[in-house]
């Protein structure tokens, strides 16, 4: 059985609102000065991650999911379930909403809707995002959308580095200018734009809005989901649960020395946010540093961590 970390190369995506932080903070070779997203764990057809080293070097994650299901203890023929990104919002993202699984399958013909969550890696002072809306009922929501009463409709939330935000499908949302996030989401690229600040693309065209679909899928009224943030400490390893729900579990691991840990999930997605150190699996040691992303495959049970590091760890 294959029992070593599967290190992945990020897939860089240009966006109208992107910037240069992915180069400055993580050393990635960005395609332009408006690079908005690094897809760091992805099997999605719009940008599949490639294995960067080791025995599986050159394979893409979708190939491994299809042909090496034992690496994930794969139980069905469905698509790889999750997608992890780093987003650099040099400008405001469009205000948008995503469908749930049923709507995505019936209307778009794709396997997954999009529930997502954000860990705030950095935020300029006073930065905010949009999470939810103020409408009490469907009639009120449609009236405010139709009349363009955006300032009254959108619900603004200030954020700072280290904050965590859970965004179920059906939630109106937008990441604001000056925020860098790590996003764990269902493996979906379906977005319905509600408002885009009347921006024009490189060709001088305003981007398409999807108001009818947005009205069909938006949760009304908006309700925040309570989160518990339970913490467990094991020697020099502190694990803080950020969210545990139907589609994914996401945790923040803080390593401050040497620590052992027993993995119980089928596989883990691991993103190194800060610091450096190493992970030992099956007697082999692998160096880690900020901006490295990997999957611990099924069958790796006992690991040893060493160093000063902050990790986001997730699994279906």
TrEMBL record:
Q: Does the keyword Isomerase apply?
A: yes
Please, which domain of life does this record's source organism belong to?
A: Bacteria
Give the reactions, separated by semicolons, that this protein catalyses: D-mannose 6-phosphate = D-fructose 6-phosphate
Instruction: Please list the GO biological process terms of this entry.
Output: carbohydrate metabolic process
Q: Which Gene3D superfamilies match?
A: Jelly Rolls (2.60.120.10)
What EC number(s) are associated with this protein in UniProt? 5.3.1.8
Report residues binding Zn(2+): 98, 116, 173
Question: Is the keyword Cell membrane assigned to this protein?
Answer: no
Active-site residues per Swiss-Prot or TrEMBL entry: 193
Occurrences of domain Phosphomannose isomerase type I catalytic (ranges): 7-106
Q: What is this protein called?
A: Mannose-6-phosphate isomerase
* Provenance organism: Salinicoccus halodurans
Top-level taxonomy? Bacteria, Bacillati, Bacillota, Bacilli, Bacillales
């Amino acid at each position: 059985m294959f029992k070593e970390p599967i290190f992945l190369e990020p897939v860089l995506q240009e966006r109208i609102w992107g910037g240069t932080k992915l180069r400055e903070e993580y050393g990635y070779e960005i395609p332009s000065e408006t690079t908005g997203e690094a897809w760091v764990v992805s099997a999605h057809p719009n940008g599949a991650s490639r294995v960067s080293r080791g025995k599986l070097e050159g394979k893409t994650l979708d190939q491994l999911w299809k042909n090496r299901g034992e690496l994930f203890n794969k139980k069905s023929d469905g698509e790889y379930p999750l997608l992890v990104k780093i987003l650099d919002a040099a400008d405001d993202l469009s205000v948008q909403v995503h469908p749930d699984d049923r709507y995505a399958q019936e209307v778009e013909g794709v396997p997954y809707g999009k529930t997502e969550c954000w860990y705030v890696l950095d935020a300029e002072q006073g930065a905010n995002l949009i999470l939810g809306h103020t409408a009490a009922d469907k009639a009120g929501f449609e009236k405010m959308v139709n009349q363009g009463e955006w300032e009254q409709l959108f619900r603004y939330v200030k954020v700072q580095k280290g904050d965590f935000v859970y965004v179920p499908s059906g939630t109106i949302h937008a990441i604001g200018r000056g925020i860098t996030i790590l996003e764990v989401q269902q493996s979906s690229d379906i977005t319905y734009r509600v408002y885009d600040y009347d921006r024009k693309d490189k060709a001088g065209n305003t981007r398409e809005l999807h108001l009818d679909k947005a009205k069909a899928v938006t949760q009304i009224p908006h309700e925040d989901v309570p989160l518990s943030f339970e913490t467990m400490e094991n020697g020099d390893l502190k694990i803080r649960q950020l969210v545990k729900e139907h589609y994914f579990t996401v945790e923040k691991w803080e390593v401050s020395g040497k620590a052992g840990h027993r993995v119980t999930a089928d596989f883990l997605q691991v993103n190194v946010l800060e610091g450096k150190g190493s992970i030992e699996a099956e007697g082999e040691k692998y160096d880690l540093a900020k901006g490295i992303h990997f999957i611990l495959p099924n069958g790796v049970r006992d690991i040893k961590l060493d160093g000063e590091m902050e990790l986001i760890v997730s699994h279906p």
